[in-house]
Amino acid sequence: MDPLTRNTREWFQDWANEYDSTLGKLGRHHAMLDLVVRASGVRNNDRVLDIGCGTGLLSLRFLNASECTVTAIDSSAQMLALFREKIEKYHLSLHVQSYQMPAEEMGFPPREFDIIAATVSLHHVKEKEPVIRRIFDLLKEGGRFVLGEIDMDTTGSHDDPVRLARILKYLTSELELAMREGGVQAFERMYDNGKKHILNDGEYCIGFDRWAALCKDAGFAHVDIIPVNEYEWFKVLVARKQGQEG
Ligand SMILES: C[S@@+](CC[C@H](N)C(=O)[O-])C[C@H]1O[C@@H](n2cnc3c(N)ncnc32)[C@H](O)[C@@H]1O
User: Fold this and answer.
1) pLDDT tens string 190-243
2) Ligand 1 atom at shortest distance from the alpha carbon of 101
3) How far is CA 168 from CA 41, 100, 157, 202, in A?
4) What average pLDDT does the structure give for the chain?
5) Which ligand 1 atom lies nearest to the CA of residue 5?
6) In a mutational test of the pocket of ligand 1, which residue from 48, 74, 123 has the highest number of ligand atoms less than 8 Å from its CB?
7) Which atom of ligand 1 is nearest to 76's Cα?
8) 194 CB under 6 A from ligand 1?
9) Stretch 8-24: mean pLDDT, rounded?
10) Which of 27, 128, 142, 178 could make an SS bond with 243 (beta carbons 3.0 to 4.6 A apart)?
11) Nearest CA to ligand 1 atom 1
12) Å from CA of 16 to ligand 1 middle
């Protein structure tokens, strides 16, 4: 595993215990998770893969919305440990399987899932193209990939002031929201993450035009992009794999 990936994993180990009381407190995060589940069209008996499940906020929503089964993966043992506590607490072990597995090494058979979802996890993956291609392979025909992400492009040179101004504009709204809804603890966490966005240190955001292009190149037939309510920096992408009916 390359050192950057290891650093990201250690950073999430550190964040895990505070996750639900920081990002997990923000209304815009819950609005995005709700939209991802709604846009997925999940139905009873669907098989769902949650990539970068964290403490399980998205997986639990899928399980609440339908009688589906969820496979949840994350590269952080600490995040998974917190999700596993919830699985036990809510007696969900028959409905969820969880694995410590990086998105870059997903070891499932092809055409295994009806829905593959990822919320604010795939921007941590530096080489996105092979992961999107793998997601395409892992979906059944007619399956959907649903991505909830920050709509921000942090590619480019670190010393480009125009790029910096764009990221700072996002951070201004994000930090204000964090302070208002999550207090000083959430603000501090998001403030630390902000520097990582600026330096591309474990945070590698791309805009939704780029996500859509990656999905089309991987073979997805239809790609839709939906804004998350009033939160201009967050969107949900739904990419459909063509079914037999066309
Ligand atoms: C911001 S959290 C999002 C958690 C959850 N999806 C949510 O929306 O609440 C990002 C998660 O992605 C995980 N992650 C980061 N890089 C990853 C990778 N390469 N493969 C799998 N998981 C990864 C982190 O450990 C962390 O749990």
Assistant:
1) 999 999 999 999 999 999 999 999 999 999 999 999 999 889 999 999 999 998
2) 21
3) 35, 33, 15, 17
4) 93
5) 19
6) 74
7) 25
8) no
9) 79
10) 142
11) 120
12) 10
Type of residue at 84 = R
- CA 9 / ligand 1 centre spacing (Å): 9
Average pLDDT over residues 73-79: 96
CATH code of the region 3-152+203-240: 3.40.50.150
C-alpha distance from residue 144 to each of 17, 130, 221 (Å): 31, 17, 10
pTM above threshold 0.85: yes
Q: How confident is the model at residue 2 (pLDDT cuts 50, 70, 90)?
A: low
Percent of the chain with pLDDT over 90: 85
CA 180 to chain centre: 23
> What number is the average pLDDT over the span 130-156?
97
Q: Ligand 1 within 6 A of 106 CB?
A: no
Residue type, 61: R
Residue 184 burial by Cβ neighbours in a 10 Å radius (0-12, 13-18, 19+) = exposed
Query: Ligand 1 pocket, 103 CB below 6 A?
Result: yes
Which amino acid makes up residue 218? A
Q: What share of the chain is helix, strand, coil (3-state, %, to 5)?
A: 50, 20, 30
Placement of tokens 């600026």 in the chain: 198
| pLDDT reading at 1 higher than 60 | no
What's the CA gap between 142 and 243, in Å, rounded?
4
Q: Which residue owns the Cα nearest ligand 1 atom 10? A: 121
Q: What is the pLDDT of residue 8?
A: 76
Q: Computed from CA positions of residues 239, 70, 79, 127, in that sequence, does the dihedral angle turn out positive or negative?
A: negative
DSSP structural state of residue 45 = T
